[in-house]
Design brief:
This is Transcription regulator TrmB N-terminal domain-containing protein. The chain is of the alpha+beta class. It contains 9 helices and 11 strands. Helix 1 crosses helix 2 and helix 2 packs across helix 3. The longest helix has 29 residues.
Length: 271
């Protein structure tokens, strides 16, 4: 239901009792860039039409000292127009259609500038960059970075169970691996030979993965992932840190080392 306002007589003046606006209206205006208080001011002004600060203050139940800076911001962002009615300052809200048109105009301008912005980003990323992640949330964000990178394959050096410090098997299978399969991203992994790694490697064909075994006495507390021009290091949960290093030179070095070990590593038996 639309906001209902009932005039109440108070010493010869009208005092408005404000009801909450529907949440979908507030969310729509927040998508435009308004906060909840600004959205309420705009909605109240739509109901009033061209209005004074005093009238609007009564409608939204805010003191004028609070309302003035809000209206100043909204005028600056093209949500209100300010004018005069006789000697009184009047605020007129832009129509919802006008706000939608403004948003479309901004989107088109951003689209036009996008190639230049991306070129600027590429220039900034010319040198190595380091991003740190922590905990389960950081683990998920790191994998999203890999999956969204556009690569079609990556290299992995892992113990096979180290990743389970951060998430459970269902998450790895149903979220990480499932998304990788959906995007057709293949992987090659080096993993120490043991009972658990054999069980993992059994699923290679259906999980777009090729594995080779390292000697069983090899210890790999951390996991290394090489993709595109980046190398990710995932420590144990005890250290609780992930490092993503963006460096073409470092990535190439790790790719070369991986491939050298790959050639010597044991190929799993198909029997």
């Amino acid at each position: 239901m639309v906001n209902i306002l009932t005039p109440q007589p108070t010493c010869g003046t009208l005092k408005y009792m404000k009801m909450d606006y529907p949440k979908e209206l507030i969310r729509g205006l927040e998508a435009y860039g308004l906060d909840s208080k600004e959205a309420n001011v705009y909605l109240a002004a739509l109901e009033l039409g061209p209005t004074t600060v005093l009238e609007l203050s009564r409608r939204v139940n805010l003191p004028r000292t609070t309302l003035y800076p809000i209206l100043e911001r909204l005028c600056l962002h093209g949500v209100f127009q300010v004018g005069k009615r006789k000697k009184t300052t009047v605020y007129t809200p832009e129509t919802p259609k006008r706000l939608s048109d403004q948003m479309s105009d901004r989107s088109r301008e951003l689209e036009k500038a996008l190639p230049s912005l991306e070129l600027l980003q590429d220039t900034a990323e010319g040198g190595p960059g380091v991003t740190f992640y922590e905990g389960t949330d950081g683990f998920k964000r790191l994998w999203k970075q890999l999956l969204d990178s556009g690569v079609k394959d990556y290299r992995l050096i892992t113990s096979g169970t180290g990743l389970l410090d951060y998430v459970k098997i269902p998450y790895l299978v149903e979220r990480v691996i499932a998304e990788r399969l959906k995007r057709g991203i293949r992987s090659r992994q080096l993993i120490p030979l043991n009972r658990e790694s054999k069980r993992i490697v059994e699923h290679d064909p259906e999980e777009l993965r090729e594995s080779r075994f390292l000697p069983s006495d090899v210890t790999l507390p951390a996991t290394v992932i090489i993709f595109a021009d980046q190398v990710a290091f995932i420590t144990t949960r005890r250290e609780n840190t992930m490092i993503l290093l963006a460096s073409g030179d470092v990535a190439k070095t790790y790719e070369t080392l991986f491939d050298l070990v790959w050639e010597k590593a044991e190929i799993p038996s198909t029997v």
